[in-house]
């Protein structure tokens, strides 16, 4: 039966071959013509100039990204750029995500205590930035809080949203401290000397924003705005002819509200905002935010609702924003002064909030804009002027 069928098939095949040779010849001529048409169409499609702004949007790291470019681009160039910056985002995720088992950071967290681990340039760079901000903020920024983050139900090992028991908290807190991680930038290695879970979520988004910007610079793009989950970096202008700068909104610190409290022009600068109004859960009306105070092991609770840090590097801005949110209002002011940071704070004041800027912010953006926006400046306790120093009173004998 099988044989018969084969033979039959064979007969039909030979006829078909003859027919198909003729067909093929005809087809090949048509194919060449069609190919040409497609090539020309493809060519013109790829060369088609796009009307700026060209905007790319998507999701990554559990948040969104939005890249806007004002440079003249063709369709082909825009696709190339998109693939290029997405590869940068992917590489940051691969290096420092705590949400994927195969990241370099997870391997580092699982490596034996005390043993130096050779790490990628970018992981070393981000660890080094983290440790600098940790030191300068006296431990308010602390990448060793990972287990506490999980315990409070934020992060990869999240538990149900509830308040952890005091003894469990105390146990975890005992290990936490940025001195549990050592970074050797000379030899590109790092090690954990206590059993802490290193969490770079407070700085990785900023670093990724920097990476996208560096990639765009390298590609010769001169006018862009990168927004990665609210961490922004701008270069050039929004409109070259009119010299209109990019403008970014500092959000009202209320959950569910996407209104800008202030609109600020941004040129070749980045900004990161940390707030207690987005990522939180509530138990009995009390709000627990995802920013942990490493001194108490508990989510921050105070009147400081939002901190925006303007810095040329978004990784530094991101880490500092978290650090200042941890320490709260009076200390945030002090720290911004000590570290010459351009900072805008939104502080709750009843149903409203006050906006307060650091002197570096005022210098950078100018008093006119600061006044226009109704932003107060930090009240710096004035050091007494020389003539105001009370002269030593001559002791008059009685
Ligand atoms: P935000 O925009 O509010 O700063 P981020 O995602 O940039 O949010 O940073 C918050 C994340 O940083 C938390 O989810 C947690 O993983 C981590 N984190 C929490 N507290 C600290 C801290 N004190 N120092 C460093 N990282 C922290
Ligand atoms: Mg941040």
Helix content: 40-55%
Largest sheet: 9 strands, mixed
> So what's the overall shape?
globular
Q: What CATH architecture of the largest domain would you give?
A: Roll
Q: Number of DSSP helices?
A: 11
Structural class: alpha+beta
Query: How many structural domains does the protein architecture include?
Result: 3
Catalogue the ligands: adenosine-5'-diphosphate, magnesium ion
CATH superfamily descriptor of the largest domain? ApbE-like domains
The Cα radius of gyration reads 29 Å
In percent terms, what proportion of residues is strand? 15-25%
Helices, strands, pairings?
Layout: H1 2-47, E1 49-50, E2 54-60, E3 63-69, E4 73-74, H2 75-96, H3 104-110, E5 117-118, H4 121-136, H5 146-151, H6 166-175, E6 181-184, E7 189-192, H7 201-218, E8 224-228, E9 231-235, E10 246-251, E11 260-266, E12 269-275, E13 280-283, E14 286-289, E15 292-293, E16 298-299, E17 304-311, H8 314-327, H9 329-338, E18 342-349, E19 352-357, H10 359-365, H11 367-372, E20 376-377
Parallel strand pairs: 19-20
Antiparallel strand pairs: 1-4, 2-3, 3-8, 5-7, 6-7, 8-9, 9-12, 10-11, 12-17, 13-14, 15-16, 17-18, 18-19
The structure holds adenosine-5'-diphosphate and magnesium ion.
Adenosine-5'-diphosphate (ADP) binds at residues 141-143, 145, 149, 154-155, 199, 201-202, 205, 274-275, 290-292, 294, 318, 321-322, 326.
Describe the structure.
It is a single chain. This protein is an alpha+beta fold and 398 residues long. It has three domains: 49-98 and 200-244, no CATH class; 111-198, ApbE-like superfamily (T-fold, Orthogonal Bundle), CATH 1.10.3980; 271-388, ApbE-like domains (T-fold). 41% of the residues lie in helices and 24% in strands. The strands form six sheets. It has a nine-stranded mixed beta sheet. A three-stranded antiparallel beta sheet has the order 5-7-6, covered by helices on one side. Strands 1-4 form a two-stranded antiparallel sheet. The N and C termini lie far apart (138 Å). It binds adenosine-5'-diphosphate and magnesium ion. The site of magnesium ion (MG) has 7 residues, from helix 7, strand 12 and helix 8.
